[in-house]
Amino acid sequence: MATELLLITFLSSPILLITLIITLLIIIIFRRRITSDPENKYRNLPPGHLGGWPFIGDTIPFMRPHSAASLGEFVDQKIARHGKIFKVKLFGKPTIVSADPSLNRFILQSEERLFLCSYPKGVENIMGKWSMLALTGEIHREMRSIALSFISNLKLKADFLSDIEEQAVEIISAWRENITFSAHEEAKKFAFNLMVKYLMSMNMSMPETAQLRKEYTSFMNGMASIPINLPGTAYRKALQSRLIILKIIGNKLDEKVQNTEEGLQGDDDLLASVVKNTDLKREQILDLILSILFAGHETSSAAISLAIYFLQSCPKALQQLREEHSKISKRKMEMGETRLNWDDYKKMEFTKCVINETLRLGNIVKFLHRKAIRDVQFNGYDIPCSWGVIPIISAEHLDPSIYEDPQQFNPWRWQIILSNVSKNNMIMSFSGGPRLCPGAELAKLEMAMLLHHLVQKYEWELAEKDFPVSFPFLEFPNGLPIKVHCV
Ligand code: HEM
Question: Bigger pLDDT: 36 or 231?
Answer without folding.
Answer: 231
